[in-house]
Write a structure and sequence with these properties.
Blueprint: H1 5-20, E1 23-30, E2 33-42, E3 50-53, H2 66-74, E4 79-82, H3 106-119, E5 125-130, H4 132-143, E6 148-154, H5 160-175, H6 181-192, H7 197-211, H8 213-224, H9 229-244, H10 257-263, H11 279-282, H12 296-299, E7 307-312, H13 320-329, E8 333-338, H14 345-348, H15 350-361, H16 372-376, H17 383-400
Parallel strand pairs: 3-4, 3-5, 5-6, 6-7, 7-8
Antiparallel strand pairs: 1-2, 2-4
Helix pairs in contact: 3-4, 6-8, 7-8, 7-9, 9-17
Length: about 400
């Protein structure tokens, strides 16, 4: 639907309507042209609002986070979100042409965020970043420390090369090389040579993230016996769509490719072994990793504000050891480990994310580690919970179909 002109126009109208509920546009340079960066602001106005930066970098803010903004407003939270340059309402320059990829960089996005705060009359804010958004949040803290009241780093990234080594070791130790029925089932599937390696990596990590180890074991066992093919293909398709597909006003990875590959190394140095986090990306780009704009491990020990670092126990994208390292580098950081939660609480458990925000506003970030189980047990809502339920149901149905 979304690739048809009529559908795109409808999505544009929906996005413009959402923008009309509160926010604005600020004109910014983009190479030889300019772009009007859209931003949204909802809820009652306060002196220190919350700025939320989602992941991606191709993920939009306007349409995907309508429910988050409504729930935040119901809780009396003043919430600001910027539409990232190259995406959604900030995708085209003032002449209606797609932004050049060369103008979509991390540094430009950080400068855009500062301009948005200027335009909205905001001097200081709580900065909440999720996944890729944590890199922007930390970069914003490096460049504009006086504007940060406190910070939440949800499923954070830190350093391209170090994070890659950590993620490989964590994934393989947990799901491939270690003891127990899940690694044994995955090893057997790998040795059967019946599934594509990149496809295996996406399906295994996605199902573990959304539904846990027992559901993953059942799916892998069924697939090894030649069953559960339908649900396997559908999950694999979703993974491919996230990398090389385009869903207007939701996920648009094309114009942010310079950030993904040249600056943050999403396809950097694949090693050819199972469960490699860069394998699927490397199959879809020729871009070379040039280098991240700031080496954050050297920069973030200078952060002086309260910081909550959220680590989901089932996160295989930015696994818990990365969060623990970041929490150890920031002087006023509190590590919030959420049991049974996957990557990005903002997307997988928004009530927990909003509860963390409330604690930051109340000056109680040091209490958050003791509340981890309570936060994780809050009722979950959102599309990822629907997908997880469909995965479970699909395994049950597909495993019973005739071969």
């Amino acid at each position: 639907m979304a690739d048809r002109p009529g559908a795109v126009r409808l999505l544009n109208r929906l996005a413009e309507r959402e923008l009309g509920r509160g926010g604005g546009r600020v004109r910014r340079p983009a190479g030889d042209t300019h772009v009007d960066i859209a931003y949204l602001r909802t809820g009652p106005r306060v002196d220190v609002p919350i700025v939320v930066i989602p992941g991606g970098p191709g993920l939009a803010s306007t349409l995907p986070y309508r429910a988050l903004r409504r729930e935040a407003a119901d809780q009396g939270l003043d919430l600001v979100m910027m539409e990232h340059r190259g995406v959604g309402l900030s995708r085209f320059d003032v002449g209606g042409t797609k932004l050049p990829v060369s103008t979509v960089t991390i540094s430009a996005a950080v400068d855009d965020l500062a301009a948005v705060l200027d335009d909205a009359g905001i001097s200081r804010a709580v900065i909440y970043g999720s996944s890729y958004g944590t890199y922007l949040a930390q970069m914003f803290g490096v460049r504009h420390p006086e504007r940060v009241a406190s910070m939440v780093l949800d499923s954070p990234i830190l350093s391209v090369v170090d994070d890659l080594a950590t993620t490989r070791a964590y994934r393989r130790g947990l799901l491939l090389d270690g003891p127990g029925p899940v690694p044994a089932a995955i090893r057997a599937l790998v040795h059967s040579d019946t599934v594509d390696s990149a496809e295996l990596g996406h399906v295994v990590t996605s199902v573990y993230d959304m539904a846990g180890s027992d559901v993953l074991r059942r799916l892998v066992d069924a697939r090894r016996r030649g069953r559960a093919r339908i649900v396997w293909r559908r999950i694999a398709h979703l993974g491919r769509a996230e990398i090389d597909g385009t869903n207007p006003y939701v996920m648009e990875p094309d114009l942010v490719a310079g950030i993904s590959y040249r600056e943050l190394g999403y396809a950097h140095n694949p090693d050819g072994l199972p469960l490699d986090p860069v394998e699927a990306f490397a199959d879809h780009t020729d871009e070379e990793f040039v280098g991240e704009p700031v080496f954050l491990p050297d920069a973030i020990p200078a952060f002086t504000w309260p910081t909550a670092v959220i680590a989901g126990s089932r996160d295989l994208v930015t696994p818990p050891p990365i969060s623990a390292r970041i929490a150890g580098l920031i002087p006023q950081a509190a590590l919030v480990e959420l049991p049974g939660v996957g990557h990005s609480a903002l997307d997988s458990h928004r009530r927990a994310a909003l509860a963390v925000i409330r604690a930051m506003l109340d000056g109680q970030h040091r209490e958050l580690p003791r509340r981890s189980s309570e936060l994780a047990a809050l009722p979950r809502r959102g599309s990822l919970q629907i997908v997880a339920a469909l995965v479970r149901a699909g395994i049950e149905v597909d495993s019973r179909l005739p071969l």
